[in-house]
Design brief:
With 292 residues, the protein is of the alpha/beta class. The chain is built from 13 helices and 7 strands. The model has no long low-confidence stretch (mean pLDDT 89).
Length: 292
């Protein structure tokens, strides 16, 4: 089956951008995130849709219940990491960047670092065109790298772009690992390990291997893998529950934080009185790890 990203922009990238726009306009502070740039780059034809009360139901029907809430929490989780970065981080490498806007939203925080965005050519070009159409200035320290993770050599692409080894860097793989096959994941993490200086951070989310095998069946949280495959972006890779630390150790990283659905709900969707505003899809988990 031909992959969607070979012929057009990623469905997952579009969905994430749309969810961030909806979240930006939320009146409930527990569901609101701050991606104001997403509101500018989403295609005009979709702006009314994402502000419709039916949009979240549409997301659930396309990707599974709890997906919208998961994307909101994931956005807040990663934004918080960017907000805490200091000048010791000289490089930011965003894999499968999609319509990520952090290079613009945090450009003052990142002005002493070089930001690299890697993605499939069709998705990356669609984003750059939207920046141009909306007259959004691309920061001078932002570099775009077009790559097919399963067909091209990441190491060569990084060297050509000027990415330096042994620097304290932040590596972000948001909504990526589950779409790669196991050899591609191993190759990507091995290269990250080779380039990462001591104290570098890697932030990524992953699917549980049991979800990939179709063995999990959580109430209100089951991801419809058939729908993911139908849009040409099937899930391929997962990590077994309880095996994350050994996975990280293989690449020289130590676990800093692992936030599953329950942890995300408690941190981002629950008020001080214990009232919860939504449930998160439980097939995925967010991770922060540090290079030893």
């Amino acid at each position: 089956m031909k992959r969607r990203i070979d012929v057009k922009e990623s469905f997952t990238a579009e969905l994430t951008c749309a969810c961030r726009v909806t979240s930006y306009y939320e009146k409930n502070p527990y569901l609101k995130s701050d991606d104001y740039v997403a509101t500018k780059i989403i295609p005009p034809s979709k702006r009314l849709l994402v502000r419709s009360p039916f949009f979240k139901k549409l997301v659930a029907s396309r990707g599974g219940s709890g997906i919208y809430e998961y994307i909101v929490c994931r956005t807040k989780y990663i934004d918080a990491i960017f907000q805490k970065l200091d000048d010791s981080f000289t490089q930011i490498l965003i894999f499968g960047a999609g319509f990520d806007t952090r290079a613009l939203r945090f450009q003052e925080k990142l002005k002493k670092a070089t930001v690299y965005e890697l993605d499939a050519p069709n998705t990356q070009n669609a984003k750059i065109e939207q920046y141009k159409k909306m007259h959004l200035a691309i920061p001078p320290n932002l570099k775009f790298i077009a790559i097919d993770f399963e067909k091209e050599t990441l190491d060569q692409k990084l060297r050509e772009a000027g990415f330096q080894a042994n620097q304290r860097s932040l590596f972000l793989l948001e909504a990526l690992t589950m779409y790669l096959d196991a050899p591609s994941v191993d190759s990507t993490f091995s290269i990250i390990s080779a380039y990462a200086g001591t104290g570098s951070l890697i932030v990524f989310d992953y699917a549980y291997a049991s979800a990939i095998r179709g063995e999990s069946d959580y109430y209100l949280e089951k991801v419809d893998l058939k729908r993911a495959a139908k849009v040409g972006e099937p899930w391929k890779f997962g990590i077994e529950e309880g095996q994350l630390e050994s996975f990280l150790a293989k690449y020289g990283f130590e676990l800093v934080d692992q936030s599953d659905a329950r942890a995300l709900e408690k941190r981002f969707l629950t008020n001080q009185n214990g009232k919860q505003y939504g449930r998160v899809n439980a097939a995925q988990c967010l991770v922060t790890a540090r290079k030893k």
